[in-house]
Amino acid sequence: MNILLIEDEEATARRLRRMVQEVEPTARIVGMTVSVDESVEWLQTHPRPDLILMDIELADGQSFEIFNRVTVTSPVVFTTAYDEYAIKAFRVNSIDYLLKPVKEDDLRNALTKLQCLKESLLEHPDSLKTSLTNLLRQMAATASPESSAQPVQTASTYRDRFLIRQGQRLFSVDVAEVAYVFTRNKLTFLKTRDGHEWMIDYSMDEVSTMLDPQRFFRLNRQIIAELRAIDKVNLYFNGKLKIGLRPIFDEEVIVSREKAGEFKVWLGE
């Protein structure tokens, strides 16, 4: 089985590649792309893969744009930290929809589903489209306007510590010590209240599902901050907000106009 992996978070891409090799040793990752543009170019210049593992939120937009720019005939398994895209995902060639962090059993089930569908798809090319249309109707019928874009979790399911690997040494950092989580050069780091930085093997999308949203807020794609780490909030141009963090972050931290209202509510407005 030849697989194209579309994922812009390096840590997630590494984990998915390792997981595919463990779940299906005969599978080959024949391509890895990180953006809509790069994915479109790859699909236009390479043979059709047997499966595409596709993140929804990419660096240059949502991966649904790929389907508007190139004909995709391969089955797709979507991966994302947000379930608001479920119905939209199943409008295209999706055979499954996996929430991050992707679990090995879920990936195994998706690959098994593809194997079961293969023979049927060869005999009846329209069967996948029909089954997905039916699934879409069922999802739309049961969709609730109050449903959240974020996967539902209880307080007890949020992570309370992270395992840090430093050479041959392993140790834990308690979430209570974390001031913020940030990404740099496609790697993810914890910044503790005492100023230490520790690399963790999770993407920002994955971390955002692990932390209690009452305590942590994703300011932008690059940084997730704990409430007590918010030192200053200043009005910025065009409705944006400029944030000062404690400990100091060495880059400018901006909350977009679209997220500014939500951020103010989170602060207690």
From TrEMBL:
Single GO molecular function: phosphorelay response regulator activity
Response regulatory domain mapped to chain residues: 2-115
SUPFAM superfamilies noted in UniProt: CheY-like
Stored InterPro entries: CheY-like_superfamily, LytR-like, LytTR_DNA-bd_dom, Sig_transdc_resp-reg_receiver
UniProt lineage: Bacteria, Pseudomonadati, Bacteroidota, Cytophagia, Cytophagales
Domain of life: Bacteria
Every HTH LytTR-type domain range: 162-269
Any Pfam family hit: LytTR
Listed name of the protein: LytTR family two component transcriptional regulator
Chain positions found as 4-aspartylphosphate: D55
Keywords: Phosphoprotein
Signal peptide positions on this chain: none
Gene3D superfamilies, per the entry: 3.40.50.2300, LytTr DNA-binding domain
